[in-house]
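Standup, Tuesday
Yesterday: got the pipeline producing structure tokens again.
Today: sanity-check two examples.
Blockers: none.

Example 1:
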Amino acid sequence: MQIDWLTVFVGIIAISNLILLTVLVALCFTVKRVINNAVKPAMDQLKTTVSDVDNMVKNIDSRTVAIMNITKDTADNVSSHIKKTTILVSEIVNPPLINIAGISAGIFKAISSLKSDKKK
């Protein structure tokens, strides 16, 4: 019996291809297991983190709007009080001061007039 080397060679190639195919299938299952064990939990955690950050941003946004509204209301209130105080001072304090200034000027003029009369 003579060995046909071509048949042996083709047989070795066929066996090698079957071994490679088996390794490839095993590799596919390994990649699937890695994806299920590592990537999916990481993606789920990422989704949770993004959702948490989104909620925080919404909370910060609503708080910022509330603070801005309070600040505007406070500024308007202070401005109103300043206007009222200015009007009050001008209506209540200014007339007596003007009268006192007028009386002082009159007294000063009278004293000056008396001094000039004494010198003559």
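Example 2:
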Amino acid sequence: MQSDLRLILEVVGGIVLLVTVVWSISTFIDKRIEKKIKDETFIKKLAAATRPALIINGENSIVHDHGALDLLESITVHRGSTEGLPEKIVVVPKRPLAYQPLVVPLDPETIVVEARQGEGLSWVFTLDYVASLEPPESHRRFRVELLL
């Protein structure tokens, strides 16, 4: 009878020990993940790897890079001859993309953006101004996102 009680206590003790070890490991991992998620540099790296993008203005200046420059051979804004407005953006990736890049105007104006594949790996975006800002020489900004 005493050996049965001892066996039951050993089994229950082993189960409690096992549950405690699993709970401790789970808590440790959860705290490490929570610490990483709150780390701003980690979030920036993750965003750059999953949604690489950049902001370019009408003067061909990169205003902000969010990981896209590592994937691009070149990006160029071509200005029109009459009003000096950006009329075409050419994006050349280093490798083929599964989807066309996304070009979004960031200024409060209405621009229709038409995309077509150019030579090689390039993508050509034609900008058609429906309602534009004054003066025309102000710096237009565009967000270019690479969809991986």
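Quick observation on example 2: The mean pLDDT is 89. The longest helix spans residues 2-37.
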